[in-house]
Structures are given as C-alpha cells and as structure tokens.
UniProtKB/TrEMBL annotation:
Gene3D superfamilies: von Willebrand factor, type A domain. It comes from Pseudomonas mangrovi. It comes from the Bacteria. PROSITE patterns: VWFA. Pfam families: VWA. InterPro entries: NorD/CobT, VWF_A, vWFA_dom_sf. Transmembrane segments: none annotated. This is Nitric oxide reductase activation protein NorD. Residues 421-610 form the VWFA domain.
Length: 613
C-alpha cells in the first residue's frame, strides 16, 4: 500500500514537471536573473535621467485575461505573468527574463526596459504612450535602433499569428505588431475582450502598492502595514482592502450566565499580533494578492491603549521639551516646517562604568595611535623662510614671472606643530534591527556599543572636540535622540556607563536626527566639522517614512548639512547599501563594513582617514 502511494506521488510529480515545462512559453536555458544586473540597470536608468530616489526591484506577477492554448489550460500556467512598470516611486522589472532563446537578448531586454523607464512619464494610454516613449528614446540615441530592431524581430517570431485569432483579437494583435515594428504609426487600437499576449518591450500601467496598505486613520494612526525585516529577497504583493464581517445582523442564542463581567472581559482592538508567525509569512509569500481588513470602533466608544512605548517610569529619561524640526516631502517638493517632534533623552539606569576589560588592550593600542596625531608636525607651504624649498610655489612664481605677473609669495616650507581645529558628532542608529544577531554570541547593538566606546577612547586621546548620540523613532511625533556625550561634557565613566546602557529602540527616521546634529555642529566654532552616521539599514518608520519618502528626506537633510559647511559621512553594515546610500550621501560619502564584527576597529581608523584629508 505504501509503495503504491509513493509510486503515485512520483508519477504525479514527473507528470507535473513534464506538462509545466512543455506548457511554458519561456526558454529556461537562456534565463537571466534581475539580481545579477540590478546595480548596472539602476545606474543606466539614472544616467538617462531617471529619478535617483526610485527603487529598482522585482515585479510581482500580474493577472492577465489571456487566450491560453489547451496545454496551458491543462497545466494551469500563464494565468499570471510578470510585466515591467514604473511610477514616481518604483521601477519594477520581472525577477527573471527567459523571453528569448538567447541569453544575450534577454539581458538586452532588461537594459531596454531600464532605458524606456527613464524616458517614461505619466501613462494615459498604454499603447500610444509606449510608442511615444520608444520614438523619443530612439530619436535621442540613434545607436539603439539596431538593438531595438533585434529585440522586435526576435519577439515577433514568438507572438501569436493574427490570422489564427478570432475577430477583434486578431485585429488588436496585428495593430500591436505594427506598433512594435514602426513605433508611432498606430494611433487607434481595436477593443477586445481578451488581453493580448504580454509585450515584454513595453511598460505596463503601475500597480498601486501603497494605497491599500495605508489606512485613513487620522493623524494618530497614519501607519502602513509592513512585514518584518528579513534577509530574503521579497516581492511586494498586490493588496486590497476588504470589509471585515463583524457577525452582526444574525440570530444569536446564548445563556446569560456565560456573559463576562466588566472586570473579566475587555474588548481591546489590536491591529495584529506582535509575535512573528513563520507559517503565515510562508503563506503570504505564496499568495499573489493580500486582502487587508481592520476592525474599527467609534473613537468615543472604546478604550484606547498605547502599547508601543514603555511606561514612563521604565522609559528613557526625557531632557526638556521636544524640539520641532522640518521634514522634506518630495511629493510636494516642500519642506514641511515643525512637522517632526524630536525628544532629547538619557538612557535610564545608566551608571558610571569603566571601560570593559575585554576592550582594554585594544583601547590602549588605539589611544597610542591617536596620541601621535596630537603631536604630529605638519608642513606649512609658501613661507617666507624655512628649512625646505617649496617647489610648487617656486614653479608658480616662475610661470607668473614669464607672463609678466610677479605676485609676492613665500618660496619655502616649514614644519610646525598645529592644533587640530576639528569638531565631530557621531550618530548611532539604535533601531530595533540592532537587536539582530551577527552570530551565536554577538548582536548588532553590542557591536555598536563597542564601537562607541573605542571611538570615545580614540578621540579623547587626540583631544578633538566630539559628541556622541544614539537615535530611533516611532512615527514623526516621537523621534528619540539619546544623549551619550554632548560637546560640553568630557569623556568619562559617566559617558561609558551611558553607552553600555544602550538598548535597541524602534525605527530609523534619519532626516530628523541629521538635522538636529547639524544644528548642534553649526554652533561649534571649529573650522572643520564632521558628522558621522553609523547605521545598519535604510531610513524607515511606521508612517509614510518608507521607501523613496525616507530616502529623499535623508538626502535633503544631508544637503542641508553640507550647506552649513559640515562633512556628512555614513558608515554602514547593510550589505544592500549600495542601492541607496550613493544617492543619499554621494559616491564618496559612505563606506560599507562587510564584516560587521570589525566595526569597532574600523570606526577609529575611518575617523583618522577622514580627518587627515
């Protein structure tokens, strides 16, 4: 009996693989994965004028009402197919392409879609707009004409024959093939009850990813439903809002003694469970569309509890009133004044602590290295007298004299002791993701704590003016900035105790933290001012501060810091940082620590390199 069941399962799996393989229109042997081309495609998209804040990710499959052949109907395939689309926030390309039997053509199709997306705009008519964008792209870059022709000719061989399609379907297919051959030549397209077979060379209408996720809850609940962070690559799902069935209106029979008293039962409205359900996550990954619902009660008819923040007696200690800060809204292209509330805080339970013994040998070595910077002598150029000849000054003098311009300048170099005129403020990301484990023994928050301790030892040895802060956020009304060491305080066991009392916080509203740090550094009188940010991920928060919105606001805050004469620099351990940090901080404004455990050693070294430029 058991053997027959196993044989039946084996035959079924073989049949499934056979019919699925023969029903698929793709060419698996020539498949190209988006992940292998993601970075060059993003660079190509932005080089041709695409918005730098737009994220390039994989597109989910879209349901299309296609005419499938008998084999495809039996196999149950081709009901949903991934297509490319683009809007102001997203560029979504298929996770893989196997449209052509040649790998080179599939890779070329990826590049064509990135180029077309860079020229695209608001879509009003699918076919006419794609033709117009194609014409504009080919007119601007004639060298693409042959590549486009190769893609079209290769694709037309695989498309259905219009003569074999019934009525309007055949007419529509014929018009689309003509539009592919000669873009801009077709302005009227027949209507058909069936969708045409997907055109991989064109962009499709954008999917509204955000609207179903953000509920109209008013100012206090302007949050989006988000999945927990994961190291796996995920594809955003289509979502729809559905009404929840409350069960009212039917006949209900019950016994009165089964009723709870007020002290026994409280109806508490929760949006979801805090714990992570791995089975639900796997099911959600398999689903093509997620249906979201929310139970609502009248504002005056229920008990509302804030379960996000700890009680005041166990929370960190607030310092003074909150600080109102602006935030950049890229959608409106406006800086919204007094939009964010930032609260300065002290870590609760922090007591003076010495440097941990395990860090003492490394700290002594770092202090010796940085003490040399205090006594370093530097060459002063263009001096009227000195021990060495300044060859560059002499050459400039000689050239000016040949042209009849002889300005007075010193021609010597002298080595002198200089005082380091430098102020530094370090911001440490303390979001909840820092609670993650790097290995069986260490968490991210512990690596950040060690980094701050060694960084403080290094800067106190060299004598530079510096401040240390940690930050996290919980929506725009609660941006938390933990003061570990201000510019007024000296580095002591009090500071070490505060650092060792750090705990993972909430989310990562980078823009507000950078703006407050900019204000503090702008008040310093030093000539050089360095703003360091240590983080493990992208800017994000529970409200709209996610995706492009958070990236654009952080970039704007960095630009504001540069206008104040600061040097912002980001140190990250996020392996995907290359997709967004160059846009926020510039190509030379960040560094990636590929081995996070090395951050405590690398941070002082990076500071030394940055301050010796």
């Amino acid at each position: 009996m058991g053997f027959s069941i196993e044989l039946e399962e084996w035959v079924g799996s073989v049949w499934h693989r056979f019919i699925t393989r023969h029903a698929s229109p793709d060419f698996p042997e020539a498949r190209v994965e988006l992940q292998t081309l993601q970075r060059p495609l993003a660079l190509l998209y932005r080089a041709l004028g695409g918005a730098a804040g737009v994220s390039l990710e994989a597109a989910s499959a879209r349901e299309l009402l296609l005419r499938r052949n008998l084999l495809q109907q039996v196999a149950g395939t081709c009901q949903q197919l991934p297509v490319a689309w683009c809007d102001s926030d997203n560029l979504r390309l298929p996770a893989s392409l196997a449209v052509y039997p040649e790998t080179a053509l599939n890779a070329e199709l990826y590049r064509w879609l990135a180029l077309l997306a860079a020229r695209s705009g608001e879509m009003r008519h699918w076919a006419r707009d794609n033709q117009r964008w194609t014409c504009e792209l080919l007119d601007a870059y004639p060298a693409l004409q042959q590549r486009y022709t190769n893609l079209v000719e290769g694709h037309l061989l695989l498309r259905p024959d219009p003569a074999q399609l019934p009525g309007a379907e055949g007419e529509l297919e014929d018009a689309l093939q003509q539009a592919l051959r000669t873009p801009g030549s077709v302005t009227s397209f027949p209507r058909s009850e069936r969708a045409p077979w997907p055109l991989p060379l064109w962009l499709y209408p954008a999917q509204n990813l955000a609207a179903p996720q953000v509920a109209a809850l008013g100012d206090e609940d302007e949050g989006a439903l988000k999945a927990p962070d994961s190291a796996q690559k995920v594809v955003r799902k289509r979502a729809s809002r559905v009404e929840e069935n409350t069960g009212k209106g039917g006949l209900l029979l019950f016994r009165l003694e089964n009723l709870f008293s007020w002290s026994e039962h409280v109806d508490l409205d929760r949006c979801g469970d805090d714990s992570e359900d791995l089975d639900a996550a796997r099911v959600a990954e398999d689903l093509d569309e997620l249906s979201l619902s929310r139970q609502r009660v009248r504002k005056g008819g229920g008990l509302k509890l804030d379960l996000d923040l700890p009680p005041a007696d166990s929370d960190d200690i607030p310092l003074g009133e909150g600080i109102k800060l602006p935030e950049w809204d890229y959608r409106r292209q406006v800086l919204r004044e007094d939009y964010v509330n930032l609260q300065l805080m002290l870590p609760r339970g922090a007591e003076p602590q010495p440097l941990p013994q395990r860090l003492a040998p490394l700290a002594r070595r770092i202090r010796r290295q940085f003490e040399h910077l205090r006594s370093d002598r530097q060459w002063q150029r263009q001096q009227p007298q000195g021990s060495e000849l300044d060859l560059q000054a002499w050459l400039d003098f000689h050239v000016e004299r040949q042209h009849g311009q002889c300005a007075e300048r010193g021609l010597f170099m002298e080595q002198r002791q200089n005082r380091r005129d430098l102020a530094c403020l370090l911001l440490a990301d303390l979001s909840m993701s820092t609670d993650a484990h790097l290995d069986d023994e260490h968490r991210v928050i512990e690596v950040i704590t060690d980094s701050l301790l060694l960084f403080g030892e290094a800067l106190s040895a060299v004598g530079d003016d510096f401040a240390l802060y940690g930050f996290s956020s919980l929506r725009r009304q609660q941006v938390r900035l933990l003061e570990l060491k201000s510019f007024r305080q000296r580095y002591s066991d009090d500071t070490r105790g505060r650092i060792q009392a750090l705990k993972p916080g909430y989310y990562t509203r980078m823009g507000a933290a950078i703006r407050q740090a900019t204000r503090q550094l702008a008040e310093r009188k030093q000539r050089r001012k360095l703003l360091l940010l240590v983080t493990d991920g992208k800017p994000n928060d529970l409200d709209l501060y996610e995706g492009r919105y958070g990236v654009e606001d952080t970039r704007q805050a960095v630009l504001e810091a540069r206008r104040e004469g600061l040097l912002p620099f980001c140190i990250t351990i996020d392996q995907e940082a290359g997709a967004y940090l160059p846009y926020m901080f510039g190509a030379n404004g960040y560094t990636l620590i590929r081995e996070p455990a090395q951050l405590p050693i690398r941070l002082p070294q990076l500071y030394r390199q940055l301050t010796q430029r």
